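In this section we walk through a basic example: taking a raw amino acid sequence and producing a predicted 3D structure, encoded as discrete structure tokens. The instruction is simple. Fold the sequence below.
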Amino acid sequence: MRLVIQRVSSASVEVEEFLVAEIETGLLVLAGIEESDTAEDIDWLVKKTCQLRIFNDPEDVMNLDIQEIGGKIIVVSQFTLHASTRKGNRPSYIRAARPETAIPLYEQLIDEFKKVLGNKKIETGIFGADMQVYLVNDGPVTIILDSKNKE
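The resulting token sequence is shown next.
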């Protein structure tokens, strides 16, 4: 599983011109799921995401995590995070999980974030929908986590 985590001062998601998620200070998390992903991948990613010290403390040093600032998270599914561009110019998405695998893992990811941060701290896009994602990337700060490449 691969997450692209963006520190935001605001973010929102629209589907068919309807607002489905909106936060102020927090994280926009784009989630790409592979067929081989497991609950272990989810546990590692949620723990790592919630403990990333990427928010500024009073001395303006990135020293605080999402829990310490009371921020919220929007989780959005994005199969294109597993695009392969090795051959040609049209990306291949063969590594991305099919919906019958990805949907339960996506829901499990959201549930795990809710366990750690609380239900009111997590918002989501709509799996498989054509979404318009808006964000103000604060910093900018963007972190990529991959459960298959734990760096």
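Looking at the output, two observations stand out. Residues 2-146 form a domain with the D-tyrosyl-trna(Tyr) Deacylase; Chain: A; fold (CATH 3.50.80.10). Residues 2 and 40 are 13 Å apart (CA to CA). In the next section we compare this with other chains.
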